[in-house]
Amino acid sequence: MLLPCVVIFALFIVWPLGKSVSLSLHGSDLFGRPDAFVGLQHYRDMLGSAEFRHILWVTFAFVLLTVIPGVLGGLAIVLLLEQHIRGIRIFRTAFALPFAFSVASASVIFATIYNPAIGLANGLLGRFGVDRIGWLTDPEWALISVSITTVWMSIGYNVLVLSAGIGAIPTEINEAATLDGAGGWRAARFITVPMLGPQLFFLIVISTIQSLQGFGQIKILTPEGGPEQSTKTLVYSIYHTAFANNASDFGAASAQAIVLLVILLACTAIQFGVLERRVHYK
Amino acid sequence: MRKLTVGRLVTYAVLVVAALAVIFPVYYVIAGSIMSPGQISAYPPDLFPHGVFTGNYEGATSTTAIGRQYLNSILQTSVITLSQLITSVLAAYAFVFMKMWGRTLLFGLFLATLMVPWESIVLPNYLTITGWELGGQRLTTSYAGTMIALVLPFLANAFGVFLLRQSFLQFPTELRDAAVIDGCGHWRFIRRILLPLNKPALMAVGLYVFLAAWNQFFWPLLIGDNANRRTLQIGISQLNDVEAADPGLILAGVTLSILPTLAIVIFGQRFIVRGLTAGAIR
């Protein structure tokens, strides 16, 4: 009964993992296919290259620009919804809507909005007398624009998770707080937020992992990795190194894939180690 | 009813503004899809459609391969969803009800596969699957082969196994033992007793897998080398390149593509929350 799962996992996860390591130790022929064994050459090249440091920096900046606004924004919305709001179900559904959008559909909508000539973003700015912004063409803005799209996509999920968490807080706790005179924001600050610890922790881990793996929005909004490579994250670089026209190199791309794997595992381990101790569990 | 204080007014104001900001792209994609070409690119931008212009939908369905891509996506998504449900039920059953040596260790290994990011094993999988042959031809040169290549790596996933195992563990072992003593075999027990009693968990896994498969981007981008073999997600992302001058048509395509997931988010929220937050609530 375990056989179907074991076969699929072995064939498409475990074996490729080993193969990735092996590819990363090989050079590539003209068509990007592996040829001679080159040892750790790809890793040495990577660590010594300014371009790779730039890629890591972009990846890190992208994580910060998406995880922090996404989780804090979701938390703010959920706390506001908790203030005994009327029409709470309408608000909840509204905030959950972005969750229905795939990476591709959300990115295409934002690409239309960001369009430099006829896009809505510049059109609206123009109305208020603000200069046009090169949302996706200005190196200063491209990563921010991609991050805005990403935050928009993740906010629905964050609200769903945090709402479910709030629903699980025993009502007696809040009643007791109200009796003691702690209402509204004091209750939110000292009761709701600490009780949401596990959910916030989960969201930070999940969002970080998802940001590190973000690809569709970067590929669609900034097809070449952005102006001056300003949106070239590690995952985009793996794709670009392996499938770019004329310069396909599966060996070097696999070395980057292994770096991605190590970074993801390290992040998860650090987050569990550091954050878990400060989280309140019921 | 509570008194309307300044604080509450501010709460409402912030929520309304936040909700509008989150809903705006959703509104814009639908409103823009029924605007005439002249209206959507008007300056200053016009936010409200003048009547219903159906030309964008006619254009999207006749000049692009969206209809075909819709079918491809439905096929790909249903095969993946069905297969994952079946493989997950089997594996979860074995983990819960069958005593065997190394069960805990194997389950740990299953969970470990969830830590491996797809992007770090995508290259070997690409080399493997595009290297396979079907009837003397490379797999991805035929339509059937392309569909097989699209779904093959995703026929099983440890997340479904994990979620169903949690649910099956609630089942009283005495009841199961009684059924077995009465001569009820594995298959009969699964079909007649276990599955009907675990419908919510099955729904949660099913919807989760459906959404993930429907929204896939990286893998379908690599497989499928002509428009008729693309999935819907890749199709709409390419509208963005091909039809850049016609935002109305792009938005019509996106609107069509989000209908199934929008329906799931609005009507299936309960199950989604259960599936998605399974890791967050302890």
TrEMBL record, chain B:
It is a multi-pass membrane protein. Its main location: membrane. This is Sn-glycerol 3-phosphate transport system permease protein. Pfam families: BPD_transp_1. The chain crosses the membrane at residues 9-30, 79-98, 105-123, 143-164, 201-222, 249-273. The lineage of its organism: Bacteria, Bacillati, Actinomycetota, Actinomycetes, Propionibacteriales. It is found in: Cell membrane. InterPro entries: MetI-like, MetI-like_sf. Residues 70-268 form the ABC transmembrane type-1 domain. It comes from the Bacteria. It comes from Kribbella orskensis. Keywords: Cell membrane, Membrane, Transmembrane, Transmembrane helix, Transport. Coiled coil: none annotated. Belongs to the binding-protein-dependent transport system permease family. Gene3D superfamilies: MetI-like.
